[in-house]
Amino acid sequence: EYRGLVKHTGGCHCGAVRFEVWASPDLHVFNCNCSICTKKQNRHFIVPASRFKLLKGAENLTTYTFNTHCAQHTFCKTCGVQSFYTPRSNPDGFGIAPHCLDEGTVNSIVLEDINGKEWEKAVKEHKTIRDMSKP
């Protein structure tokens, strides 16, 4: 257990992929306007890899990459839902889709727009994003 954090569970639409993640019940969610986040409406919060556990479905995941190939856009082969991924900004953590969490553990969501169209500049100027994947 992690002090001040709760265990959220979630997964894809068909249930083939399931995970648990320890995070605050009050989520800080990024709304990115880069090309892929815009196309798939990818809103996510960032956690350290040590606070994420894939419970089932590793064999049902596939990955899409582009440009720098740092971000690992994982999604379910069956239903196509991306419930989590490895963000370019935090390759040592995971970006979790809050809309893929099971009900009952989220108290609030604060949404922050991030200018992914100018990714390098936005991440360089952001004061906390790189630290969000640190334990």
Automatic annotation (TrEMBL):
MF (Gene Ontology): carbon-sulfur lyase activity; metal ion binding
SUPFAM superfamilies according to UniProt: Mss4-like (SSF51316)
InterPro entries according to UniProt: CENP-V-like, CENP-V/GFA, Mss4-like_sf
Record keywords: Metal-binding, Zinc
Domain CENP-V/GFA intervals: 8-120
Entry keyword Transcription regulation: no
Domain of life, source organism: Eukaryota
Keyword Metal-binding: yes
Pfam family, one: GFA
UniProt record similarity statement: Belongs to the Gfa family.
The name this protein goes by in its record: CENPV protein
Native source species: Nothoprocta ornata
